[in-house]
Backbone:
């Protein structure tokens, strides 16, 4: 089966909605341009995100990357470049917390700093997981797991091939850019909640872990699954790579 890059999603403000693009620049750090470029930071210097409050899920963000603006909850529009103070004030009022917006244009604010590249999942995997929780849709599965890159043309959990045994990273290529698969992504509380309302699905993590264990493919390295609440692959650029561009339709090849 041939894996093809079918969807690219970036999240200009960490924890808020994503936006899909046809192609994207890969920065020298391995981050996708403008992905998690901004982050909501609380008074104690910690990220304020969905792991800390379900109120994040009820903010709708619509990005115009050409203009570098965001419209929040269908009303207020802000420039991502020169209205960070005003945007921070809106978030403080809406979330009811003391916070500011921090910016990192070079690497964004990845969850896994040892693997700051894009997260990667298969369309078939997302569809399979949605089937574990009827009536969850494919789109809701996407919103909950928030992967940057989505692959088509392969079976469920194909992406587990990009994870090697402990101590070994797996080389792969997307278009002309060379990557390393680092580890299966450990999930947090966010996927357990409805992506629009923030309402938690009782038992989600338990059911997910049970079904993930039952369906773990033979190519997945057992020693990388100390628990089964893991989905997607964390990545980083291969040594010597300085970035590049990836596009929808690019082939994804091992080695």
Residues:
């Amino acid at each position: 089966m041939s894996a093809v890059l079918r969807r690219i999603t970036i999240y200009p403000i960490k924890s808020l909605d994503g936006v899909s693009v046809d192609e994207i620049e890969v920065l020298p750090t391995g981050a996708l341009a403008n992905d998690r470029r901004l982050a909501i930071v609380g008074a104690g210097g910690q990220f304020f995100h969905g792991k800390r409050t379900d109120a994040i899920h009820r903010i709708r963000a619509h990005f115009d990357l050409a203009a570098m603006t965001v419209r929040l909850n269908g009303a207020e529009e802000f420039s991502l470049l020169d209205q960070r103070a005003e945007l921070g004030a809106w978030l403080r009022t809406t979330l009811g917390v003391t916070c500011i917006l921090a910016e990192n244009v070079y690497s964004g604010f990845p969850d896994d700093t040892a693997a700051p590249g894009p997260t990667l999942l298969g369309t078939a995997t997302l569809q399979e997981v949605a089937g574990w929780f009827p009536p969850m849709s494919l789109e809701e599965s996407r919103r909950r797991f928030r992967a940057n890159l989505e692959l088509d043309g392969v079976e469920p959990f194909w992406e587990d091939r990009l994870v090697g045994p402990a101590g070994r990273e797996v080389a792969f290529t997307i278009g002309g850019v060379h990557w390393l698969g680092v580890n299966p992504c450990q999930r947090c509380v966010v996927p357990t909640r409805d992506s629009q309302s923030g309402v938690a699905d009782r038992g989600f993590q338990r059911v997910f872990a049970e079904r993930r264990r039952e369906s773990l493919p033979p190519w997945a390295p057992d020693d990388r699954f100390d628990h089964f609440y893991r989905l997607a692959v964390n990545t980083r650029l291969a040594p010597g790579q300085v970035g590049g561009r990836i596009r929808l339709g690019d082939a994804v090849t091992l080695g």
Remarks:
- The first strand starts at residue 3 and ends at 10.
- The two ends are 15 Å apart (CA to CA).
- Residues 3-8+114-254 form one domain.
- DSSP finds four helices and 15 strands in the chain.
